[in-house]
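U., I forgot to send this yesterday:
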Amino acid sequence: MDTAESLSSLLRSHRSIRRFKPDPIDPAVVEAVCAEAIAGTSSSGNLNSYSLVLTEDRARRERLYELHFRQDMIRQAPLVISFCADTFRTRRWLRLRQARDNFGNFLGFVVAAFDAMILAQSVALGFESRGLGICYLGTTLNACAEIADFLQLPETCIPVTTLAIRWPDEAPAKRDRLPLASYLHRETYRHLDDAELLDLYAEREVRGWARYNSAGPEMARLFEAHGVTSLAQFYTSELKYPPARFRAVSRRLFETLRAKGFADRRGAGGHDAKDLA
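Result:
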């Protein structure tokens, strides 16, 4: 199998794994995956504005389990990696070389966060290519201040995503995606009329709604109690991503950026915090 076919097969086989076997991960494999990912991942200005914090100690993973809203895969996984947007290291190097300080600002955070996310995907592919299972933890930003404190992260260094990693003990069905036409725009953004947009979401709505309803009668009871009658309603209901909670998390995230040195008193770019939260 050539390189393109191998990569295509790897991407097609991706699943988020939430149940793991007890088998340990060879530390040499962990270091090899991380080294290869760092060497092979693009970085803005080659500043590599990220850090990876590996958590393997059982007691410390238990604390991460609490901070990540008690997701069981953290307890099962012998390795949890927190990917951090980190300009602290670069800024210290600048200072030691008598260069002007920079990157302790909102743009510095955005660039570092993108670098860290790109690296996280390379690491994920590296582990998956070796047969290991991974699961991204979308709760990282929700508790980034608490996680940063727990990991003892310095100024202008905060976690942006997390991977739980172990040998998989399940083979879940592949999650559906929207048709390719939903994502690809040629030359300029293609604005769809309402009928076209609903048509692109039609299969996703049927499959997604069926998947959540297959969880059992308790889920159906919750849907009824919250007046949820469609997949779209579910995504902004109190059961999934309620707008009020998102606004609150957004405010806390901006406060964390400011506390960690990624924004000045008035906020990123001189804007008031309320305008960005």
